[in-house]
């Protein structure tokens, strides 16, 4: 699947912009040095080279809108002992815009990710139906997901011989209140997860059922966008040795620009599937923030910070990684920028051991867009 994703992303970038009603893409080439790619105690460093690309494509045909978005990235290290890091994502969308009583929005998402401790693939089909017009808009969404997951196993010291594969079906009814640029609403997701194998390698049953009620709000204008989702998830496992998961989750994001200043921030907590032997899920908390200032018309400086904490349900184990850094970028030609970045990382492993690392990177970015998008 990753080969097809890579080919599709590349094709969409090199296609002439005139082939689409709306088209935008970017390609970035990076190079530098990472003193500790694995963030392991006493870890070795390596030079690296990387590229990442993204695109967005849209076409309106009568009462329908068709679109596609994609992201791809690959990082390779000079020392062969380090596993390349790969991420590919493709999202296809078809929606009607006829203004009828019921609107249809269907999306297909393909994801492949691989690095030194995780290998995963996801195919997700989502269909969203919503009443059009009026302030109150009831909706219902259905998701069908097939996933494959393999993580570095603490007991084996290696990946599992075979990845864990599962199917998950989800139905989400809800209602939205739309007023101008703002929207609020509530929903409840009901899902069932069925694994390909009844028992995993260690003899645990991982089939489960989930209930997740949510409330949300979002607002957007030219200078500010904000969204927040608050939910409570209950996961009941069929394995007697797993306790039921009861956790408060959230997803908050903010983007704003004021004169020469701009800020982007997100704060997210999710319940994620895992192959960890004695945990049904991990509770992941991620925080990201970036503050930028335009030094002049072509030069921007920024400071950034990231944090990821992973807690393993039914155990006292957790891990945490924090990164802070600075970045300076400058536009050298139209739609071409160069940037320099240095980041400092600190990691606490599930064993309690700590590690640090430093990355220094140079990047060259090229943007592509139709005239309307520039």
List keywords for this structure.
single chain; 374 residues; mainly beta; 18-stranded antiparallel beta barrel; 1 helix; 3% helix
Unreliable stretches covering 5 or more consecutive residues: 10-20
Structure annotation, total helices: 1
What is the number of E strands? Answer: 19
Largest sheet, strands/sense/barrel: 18 strands, antiparallel, barrel
Would you mind describing this structure in some detail?
With 374 residues, the chain is mainly β. Helix content is 3%, strand content 69%. It has one helix and 19 strands. The chain has one helix spanning 2-14; strands spanning 22-34, 46-61, 64-77, 85-96, 102-114, 118-131, 136-153, 158-159, 164-179, 182-195, 208-220, 224-237, 245-258, 261-273, 281-294, 299-312, 318-333, 336-348, 354-369. The chain has an 18-stranded antiparallel barrel. Residues 10-20 have low confidence and may be disordered.
Give a brief description.
The protein contains one helix and 19 strands. The protein is mainly β. It has an 18-stranded antiparallel beta barrel.
Question: Layout of SSEs?
Answer:
Blueprint: H1 2-14, E1 22-34, E2 46-61, E3 64-77, E4 85-96, E5 102-114, E6 118-131, E7 136-153, E8 158-159, E9 164-179, E10 182-195, E11 208-220, E12 224-237, E13 245-258, E14 261-273, E15 281-294, E16 299-312, E17 318-333, E18 336-348, E19 354-369
Antiparallel strand pairs: 1-2, 1-19, 2-3, 3-4, 4-5, 5-6, 6-7, 7-8, 7-9, 9-10, 10-11, 11-12, 12-13, 13-14, 14-15, 15-16, 16-17, 17-18, 18-19
